[in-house]
Amino acid sequence: MKYTVSIEIALPRETVVQLLADPAQMPKWLRGLVLHEPISGTHGQVGTVSRVVMQTGNQKFEGTETITRREPVDLHGIPGDSVVHFEREIVGDGMWSAARERFTEAGPQSTLWRSENEYRFSGVVMRLVGLLMPGAFRKQSLQHMQDFKAFAEQGLDVRDAKG
Length: 163
What we know:
The chain is of the alpha+beta class. Helices cover 26% and strands 44% of the residues. The chain is built from four helices and seven strands, in the order E-H-H-E-E-E-E-E-E-H-H. Strand 3 and strand 4 form a beta hairpin. The longest helix is centred in the C-terminal third of the chain and has 21 residues. The model has no long low-confidence stretch (mean pLDDT 91).
């Protein structure tokens, strides 16, 4: 299963990617995050492997995330015409996914975030989930992007929005 979602954020690209790359900010915008800890490497750097635990309602997901691309490595002084890339793979029980994030300047104070996502499922249960609920994956990706936008632009913290 593959899909692409995008959102425009009313902040300069450099600000957006620095906030996104800061592990201390993740709990403020990544709804359902229980744990994100590097097993090897440094958070956000290519080759880093992290244990990730997410929870939505009674559903808990645990997986391993590997950073496969981050360009440029230094997120300061990025030339205006370049594209910032963050890419990762996540492996969990019955599932493999890849996310390819692209950040471009939409204007001097605006950033376009485009996220290409791919999922592969193994096992009967996960294959059924993929077949019967493909929209749920897209909806969740877009929700994470909207939560990040609200956090980045307005300082809203998903942990404050109970219910």
